[in-house]
Amino acid sequence: MVGAIAFWAVQGLWGWTWAKITGPPGLTAYTPGPGGCVPRYHGDVPEQDPGTAEGVPITAKGYRPAELPLTLQAKTDEAIVVTGVEVEVRSSQDSPTLGTVTDPHGCGGGMNARKFDVRLTQTPVPVVAAAGSGSKAKDFPFTVSASDPKQLSLRLDPSDQDIRFSVKVEWVADGEYGSVTLDNDDAREPADRGQGYRVMGRPELP
Question: How many Å apart are CA 177 and CA 147, to the nearest integer?
Fold first, then answer.
Protein backbone atom coordinates (compact mmCIF):
# COMPACT_ATOMS: atom_id res chain seq x y z
CA MET A 1 0.00 0.00 0.00
CA VAL A 2 2.88 2.35 0.75
CA GLY A 3 4.05 2.01 -2.83
CA ALA A 4 0.63 2.91 -4.24
CA ILE A 5 0.27 5.98 -2.04
CA ALA A 6 3.81 7.08 -2.85
CA PHE A 7 2.97 6.98 -6.57
CA TRP A 8 0.35 9.67 -6.17
CA ALA A 9 2.44 11.65 -3.70
CA VAL A 10 5.13 12.00 -6.37
CA GLN A 11 2.44 13.43 -8.66
CA GLY A 12 1.91 16.21 -6.12
CA LEU A 13 -1.65 15.15 -5.36
CA TRP A 14 -3.39 15.50 -2.01
CA GLY A 15 -6.64 14.76 -0.23
CA TRP A 16 -6.84 10.98 -0.47
CA THR A 17 -10.34 9.65 -0.19
CA TRP A 18 -10.79 6.48 1.85
CA ALA A 19 -13.63 4.72 0.10
CA LYS A 20 -16.88 3.54 1.60
CA ILE A 21 -16.76 -0.25 1.35
CA THR A 22 -19.77 -2.53 0.97
CA GLY A 23 -19.82 -6.30 0.83
CA PRO A 24 -16.93 -8.50 1.98
CA PRO A 25 -13.74 -6.52 2.67
CA GLY A 26 -10.83 -6.85 0.31
CA LEU A 27 -10.37 -3.82 -1.95
CA THR A 28 -9.31 -0.28 -1.11
CA ALA A 29 -9.61 2.63 -3.54
CA TYR A 30 -8.04 6.07 -3.45
CA THR A 31 -8.56 9.24 -5.45
CA PRO A 32 -7.48 12.86 -4.98
CA GLY A 33 -10.54 13.98 -6.96
CA PRO A 34 -10.76 15.37 -10.49
CA GLY A 35 -7.79 17.32 -11.80
CA GLY A 36 -5.10 17.33 -14.43
CA CYS A 37 -3.43 19.94 -16.61
CA VAL A 38 -6.72 21.73 -17.24
CA PRO A 39 -8.36 25.14 -16.81
CA ARG A 40 -10.19 25.73 -13.52
CA TYR A 41 -13.30 27.65 -12.67
CA HIS A 42 -13.39 29.99 -9.67
CA GLY A 43 -16.70 31.42 -8.57
CA ASP A 44 -17.25 34.31 -6.17
CA VAL A 45 -13.55 34.90 -5.51
CA PRO A 46 -13.36 38.25 -3.63
CA GLU A 47 -10.69 40.58 -5.01
CA GLN A 48 -7.87 38.11 -4.68
CA ASP A 49 -5.76 36.14 -7.07
CA PRO A 50 -8.15 33.40 -8.31
CA GLY A 51 -5.14 31.12 -8.61
CA THR A 52 -5.04 30.89 -4.82
CA ALA A 53 -8.31 28.94 -4.85
CA GLU A 54 -8.32 25.34 -6.03
CA GLY A 55 -11.16 25.76 -8.48
CA VAL A 56 -13.33 23.31 -10.39
CA PRO A 57 -11.59 21.32 -13.17
CA ILE A 58 -12.80 22.11 -16.70
CA THR A 59 -12.76 19.90 -19.79
CA ALA A 60 -12.20 22.31 -22.70
CA LYS A 61 -11.08 22.21 -26.32
CA GLY A 62 -7.33 22.61 -26.74
CA TYR A 63 -6.50 20.94 -23.42
CA ARG A 64 -6.34 17.45 -22.06
CA PRO A 65 -9.64 16.34 -20.52
CA ALA A 66 -10.10 16.65 -16.79
CA GLU A 67 -9.29 13.28 -15.22
CA LEU A 68 -10.24 11.36 -12.10
CA PRO A 69 -7.23 9.22 -11.09
CA LEU A 70 -7.89 6.03 -9.12
CA THR A 71 -5.56 3.66 -7.31
CA LEU A 72 -6.97 0.19 -6.61
CA GLN A 73 -5.27 -2.24 -4.25
CA ALA A 74 -6.24 -5.44 -2.42
CA LYS A 75 -5.84 -5.61 1.34
CA THR A 76 -4.05 -8.96 1.10
CA ASP A 77 -1.83 -10.79 -1.38
CA GLU A 78 -4.87 -12.72 -2.59
CA ALA A 79 -5.81 -11.53 -6.07
CA ILE A 80 -9.12 -9.71 -6.48
CA VAL A 81 -10.86 -9.40 -9.85
CA VAL A 82 -12.03 -5.86 -10.62
CA THR A 83 -15.05 -6.35 -12.87
CA GLY A 84 -16.03 -2.78 -13.71
CA VAL A 85 -16.63 0.86 -12.79
CA GLU A 86 -20.01 2.56 -12.67
CA VAL A 87 -20.39 6.34 -12.70
CA GLU A 88 -23.52 7.94 -11.24
CA VAL A 89 -24.40 11.54 -12.03
CA ARG A 90 -25.66 13.23 -8.84
CA SER A 91 -26.59 16.54 -10.47
CA SER A 92 -26.26 18.29 -13.82
CA GLN A 93 -26.89 21.92 -14.71
CA ASP A 94 -25.72 24.55 -17.16
CA SER A 95 -22.20 25.83 -16.61
CA PRO A 96 -22.12 29.10 -14.63
CA THR A 97 -22.22 32.49 -16.32
CA LEU A 98 -20.30 34.39 -13.64
CA GLY A 99 -16.87 33.83 -12.14
CA THR A 100 -13.29 33.44 -13.37
CA VAL A 101 -11.39 30.79 -15.33
CA THR A 102 -7.63 30.29 -14.96
CA ASP A 103 -5.57 28.38 -17.51
CA PRO A 104 -2.90 25.82 -16.51
CA HIS A 105 0.83 26.55 -16.68
CA GLY A 106 3.94 24.37 -16.55
CA CYS A 107 2.22 21.01 -16.85
CA GLY A 108 4.27 17.82 -16.65
CA GLY A 109 3.80 14.54 -18.47
CA GLY A 110 0.81 12.26 -18.05
CA MET A 111 0.78 9.27 -15.74
CA ASN A 112 1.02 5.66 -16.86
CA ALA A 113 -2.46 4.34 -16.10
CA ARG A 114 -5.33 2.40 -17.64
CA LYS A 115 -7.47 5.08 -19.27
CA PHE A 116 -11.23 5.15 -19.63
CA ASP A 117 -13.40 7.74 -21.40
CA VAL A 118 -16.48 8.80 -19.43
CA ARG A 119 -19.31 10.73 -21.12
CA LEU A 120 -21.17 12.22 -18.19
CA THR A 121 -24.14 13.51 -20.20
CA GLN A 122 -25.19 10.06 -21.45
CA THR A 123 -27.55 7.72 -19.57
CA PRO A 124 -26.35 5.28 -18.41
CA VAL A 125 -22.90 6.82 -18.24
CA PRO A 126 -20.52 4.79 -20.47
CA VAL A 127 -17.05 3.95 -19.15
CA VAL A 128 -15.06 2.94 -22.24
CA ALA A 129 -11.46 1.69 -22.27
CA ALA A 130 -9.20 4.07 -24.21
CA ALA A 131 -5.68 3.80 -25.57
CA GLY A 132 -2.99 5.66 -23.67
CA SER A 133 0.20 7.23 -24.95
CA GLY A 134 1.88 4.40 -26.83
CA SER A 135 -0.31 1.72 -25.27
CA LYS A 136 -3.43 -0.18 -26.29
CA ALA A 137 -6.77 0.12 -24.52
CA LYS A 138 -7.05 -2.22 -21.51
CA ASP A 139 -10.59 -3.01 -20.44
CA PHE A 140 -12.11 -4.81 -17.46
CA PRO A 141 -11.77 -7.31 -15.90
CA PHE A 142 -8.30 -7.25 -14.35
CA THR A 143 -6.74 -8.38 -11.08
CA VAL A 144 -5.16 -6.48 -8.20
CA SER A 145 -3.43 -7.58 -5.00
CA ALA A 146 -1.56 -5.93 -2.13
CA SER A 147 1.70 -6.16 -4.06
CA ASP A 148 0.18 -5.40 -7.46
CA PRO A 149 -2.00 -2.25 -7.34
CA LYS A 150 -3.43 -0.71 -10.48
CA GLN A 151 -3.71 2.92 -11.51
CA LEU A 152 -6.74 4.05 -13.53
CA SER A 153 -7.63 7.39 -15.03
CA LEU A 154 -11.21 8.34 -15.90
CA ARG A 155 -11.17 11.01 -18.64
CA LEU A 156 -14.22 13.15 -17.97
CA ASP A 157 -16.45 14.65 -20.67
CA PRO A 158 -19.19 16.84 -19.13
CA SER A 159 -20.01 18.53 -22.47
CA ASP A 160 -21.20 22.06 -21.56
CA GLN A 161 -22.65 21.04 -18.19
CA ASP A 162 -21.66 21.55 -14.54
CA ILE A 163 -21.82 18.02 -13.14
CA ARG A 164 -21.40 16.26 -9.80
CA PHE A 165 -20.84 12.50 -9.89
CA SER A 166 -19.76 9.50 -7.84
CA VAL A 167 -17.88 6.33 -8.81
CA LYS A 168 -18.49 2.72 -7.79
CA VAL A 169 -15.78 0.09 -8.34
CA GLU A 170 -17.11 -3.48 -8.49
CA TRP A 171 -15.03 -6.57 -7.73
CA VAL A 172 -15.19 -10.30 -7.01
CA ALA A 173 -13.11 -12.41 -4.58
CA ASP A 174 -13.66 -16.12 -3.88
CA GLY A 175 -17.00 -15.95 -5.66
CA GLU A 176 -18.24 -13.09 -3.46
CA TYR A 177 -19.23 -9.69 -4.82
CA GLY A 178 -18.09 -6.40 -3.32
CA SER A 179 -18.09 -2.74 -4.26
CA VAL A 180 -16.29 0.48 -3.29
CA THR A 181 -18.00 3.86 -3.59
CA LEU A 182 -16.10 7.12 -3.98
CA ASP A 183 -18.26 10.21 -3.45
CA ASN A 184 -15.97 12.95 -2.10
CA ASP A 185 -16.92 12.23 1.50
CA ASP A 186 -13.80 13.93 2.87
CA ALA A 187 -14.10 17.16 0.87
CA ARG A 188 -12.57 20.30 2.38
CA GLU A 189 -15.92 22.05 2.53
CA PRO A 190 -18.43 20.28 4.81
CA ALA A 191 -21.30 21.09 2.44
CA ASP A 192 -19.54 19.16 -0.35
CA ARG A 193 -18.90 15.96 1.62
CA GLY A 194 -20.62 12.96 0.10
CA GLN A 195 -22.12 15.11 -2.67
CA GLY A 196 -19.88 13.72 -5.41
CA TYR A 197 -17.00 15.17 -7.44
CA ARG A 198 -17.48 18.25 -9.61
CA VAL A 199 -16.33 18.89 -13.17
CA MET A 200 -17.65 21.16 -15.91
CA GLY A 201 -17.36 22.25 -19.51
CA ARG A 202 -15.79 25.64 -20.11
CA PRO A 203 -18.36 28.28 -19.12
CA GLU A 204 -19.25 31.23 -21.31
CA LEU A 205 -18.20 34.12 -19.06
CA PRO A 206 -18.51 37.84 -19.78
Answer: 21
